[in-house]
Amino acid sequence: MRLFSFTKEIAIDLGTANTVIIHNDKIVIDEPSIVALDKATDKLIAVGKEAQQMQGKENEKIRTVRPLRKGVIADFNAAELMIRGLVKKASTKNNWFSPSLRMVVGIPSGSTEVEIRAVRDSSEHAGGRDVYMIYEPMAAALGIGLDVTAPEGNMIVDIGGGTTEIAVISLGGIVSNKSIQIAGDDLTADIKDHMRRTHNVKVGERTAELIKMNVGSALTELENPPEDYIVHGPNQMTAMPMEVPVSYQEISHCIEKSISKIETAVLSALEQTPPELYADIVHNGIYLAGGGAMLRGLDKRLTDKIGIQFHIAEDPLLAVARGTGVALKNIDKFSFLIR
User: Fold this and answer.
1) H helix and E strand count, the chain
2) Which of 156, 185, 83, 170 is nearest to 316 (CA)?
3) pLDDT tens, 132-169?
4) pTM for this one?
5) 146-154 contacts at long range (C-beta below 8 A, 24 or more positions apart)
6) Is the alpha carbon torsion for 176, 291, 72, 92 positive or negative?
7) How confident is the model at residue 331 (pLDDT cuts 50, 70, 90)?
8) In Å, how far from its chain's centre is CA 323?
């Protein structure tokens, strides 16, 4: 009978780049946050991976939309269709039918009241009956396995697609936080600009993302350097095909400015930290989560610059999602969940 129980519980990490849905402690959906819509009727054509394959290849009938920008909902209708589409995908995959859902959704710690309401409304319209929200750095801390209710300070730096969230957590609350709109998407944009300016070659978002994944680096000297990545694209002037090898040193120089801004934000968050908690952070180290934590050499660069050990979370991409799942199981225990 459990299969047809009327309330299903799901945890959602609604990210700018990827959306992850957890049900019964299992990740049932991990797909790009993107939808393909009919241009004339705005009806949903595809969601997640299928929609991502259409990105940059649309025709006059189809448009692809990323509903979230900088960690917040930029297109309300598309966000609702995306949540609904991904929940439906999860339910068909796992054979559960549910007329009403209890959801815990991760949101950026710098969200305004209006942005929080947008997430709540989208979730309710997509079938959520009870909607709870959790700040992403808090979810990341839970996902890493930290005891967030303990009387000691822990610092989390969660580098997502749209925002970098930096928070000091103690006694089940956020003591100080800083949210900056410099994150993975900005690094991708830096790479696109660099390819255009330096190599005169035009690359789309998907290709820039692949360059970042293959040869992205925060340092100009790496112990195990990746091989150069070959990029194919049209010459801007002649439109003739070009083949350009890209090295990690080159990418390290082109994303330098954005990485420095993240460094400055971490230092600024440390400045606002009470001295007792600061001592705990120096002792425990600082945890890196989110897709940006996977950038080669970032932990070493931050450790050298700030003088506190940086640890990359195990499976940083899924830390927030796993923490949202932990919060879902402890809805009654955790007072920091927003109703």
Assistant:
1) 11, 17
2) 156
3) 999 999 999 999 999 999 999 999 999 998 899 999 99
4) 0.88
5) 146/287, 148/172, 148/336, 152/277, 152/280, 152/284, 153/273, 153/274, 153/276, 153/277, 153/278, 153/279, 153/280, 153/281, 153/284, 154/280, 154/281, 154/284, 154/287
6) negative
7) confident
8) 13
Question: How far apart are the C-alpha atoms of 96 and 303, rounded to whole Å?
Answer: 46
Is 130:142 a contact under the CB 8 Å cutoff? no
Please compute, for residue 261, the number of CA atoms within 13 A of its CA located in the half-sphere on the CB side: 15
**What single string gives the DSSP state of each residue in 171-215?**
TTEEEEEEEES-SHHHHHHHHHHHHHHHH-B---HHHHHHHHHHH
At 214, list the tokens. Answer: 């293959």
DSSP state of 219: -
Instruction: Say if CB 81 and CB 37 are below 8 A apart.
Output: yes
**Which phi and psi (to 5°) does residue 154 adopt?**
-130, 140
Helix (H) or strand (E) holding 18: strand 18-23
What type of residue sits at position 328?
L
Write b or e for each residue in 231-269: b if 16 or more Cβ atoms lie within 10 A of its Cβ, otherwise e: bebeeeeeeeebebebbbbbbbebbeebbeebbebbeeb
Report the C-alpha gap between 141 and 233 in whole angstroms: 41
How far apart are the C-alpha atoms of 298 and 310, rounded to whole Å? 9
- What the block records as the tokens of 17 is 């780049």
Pull the structure tokens for residue 215: 């040869």
pLDDT digits (tens, 9 = 90+) for 169-209: 999 999 988 999 999 999 999 999 999 999 999 998 889 99
pLDDT tens-digit series, residues 67-118 = 988 888 888 889 889 988 998 888 877 776 666 788 899 888 878 888 888 8
Share of the chain above pLDDT 90, in %: 60
Residue with tokens 């710098």: 110
- pLDDT tens, residue by residue, 274-296: 999 999 999 999 999 999 999 99
Cα 249 from chain centroid?
Answer: 25
* Distance (Å, whole) CA 251 – CA 190: 9
